[in-house]
């Protein structure tokens, strides 16, 4: 048992480091007398990625619905718009760093929230893949090829635009 100040630091030290092993995230790392503080939890990469993913997912639904109202639902322009705007945003965020994307401007927790969480939840590569498959299944080979071509070309262009904007200022 320790005082509140050392308890918070102790809990922060015992937070699992980011990895891909579920066994690393266990509540048993905290003693009954020393639970993590809210501020230490808000620095945890898993929580930051999850919160950012929620924000990005809501943004994806909003953008897709807006574009679909304008273009209709016969072609996945909403998904293309989400992927392209996500690529531009990723390019802008990554363009602030010289050696590692986003490193100079953002702290590691901020990068996790924005680049992994928000943009990971916002962009929709799995939706793109499904929509391309469905276009092929419907016999719309030209639509599937157009979807692949526009998505890849415009997303790479979006990353370049983001970097160019940052470098111009």
Summarize the structure.
The chain is mainly α. The chain has helices spanning 4-14, 38-41, 45-71, 77-95, 108-122, 125-137, 141-168.
Overview of the molecule:
This protein has one domain. The protein is about 70% helix and about 0% strand. Mean pLDDT is about 80; it is low at about 5-10 and about 20-30. It is globular, with a radius of gyration of 20 Å. The longest helix is centred in the C-terminal third of the chain and has 28 residues, at about 140-169. The N and C termini lie far apart (about 50 Å). It contains 7 helices and no strands. With about 170 residues, it is mostly helical.
Unreliable residue stretches: 6-12, 19-30
Q: How many helical stretches?
A: 7
H-E string: HHHHHHH
Distance between the termini: 52 Å
Largest sheet: none
Total count of strands: 0
How many individual domains?
Answer: 1
Mean pLDDT: 80
As a whole number of angstroms, the C-alpha radius of gyration is 20 Å
Strand content: under 5%
What is the overall shape? globular
Backbone structural class? mainly alpha
As a percent range, the share of helical residues equals 55-70%
């Amino acid at each position: 048992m320790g005082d509140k100040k050392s308890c918070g630091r102790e809990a922060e030290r015992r937070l699992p480091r980011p990895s891909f092993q579920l066994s690393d995230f266990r509540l048993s790392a905290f003693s009954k007398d020393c639970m993590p503080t809210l501020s230490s939890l808000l620095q945890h990469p898993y929580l930051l990625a999850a919160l950012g993913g929620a924000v990005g997912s809501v943004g994806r639904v909003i953008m897709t619905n807006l574009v679909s109202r304008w273009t209709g639902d016969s072609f996945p322009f909403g998904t293309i718009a989400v992927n392209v705007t996500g690529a531009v945003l990723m390019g802008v965020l990554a363009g602030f760093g010289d050696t590692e994307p986003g490193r100079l401007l953002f702290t590691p927790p901020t990068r996790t929230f924005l680049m992994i969480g928000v943009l990971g939840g916002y962009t929709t590569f799995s939706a793109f893949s499904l929509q391309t498959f469905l276009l092929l299944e419907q016999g719309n080979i030209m639509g599937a090829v157009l979807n692949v071509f526009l998505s890849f070309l415009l997303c790479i262009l979006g990353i370049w635009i983001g970097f160019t904007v940052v470098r111009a200022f």
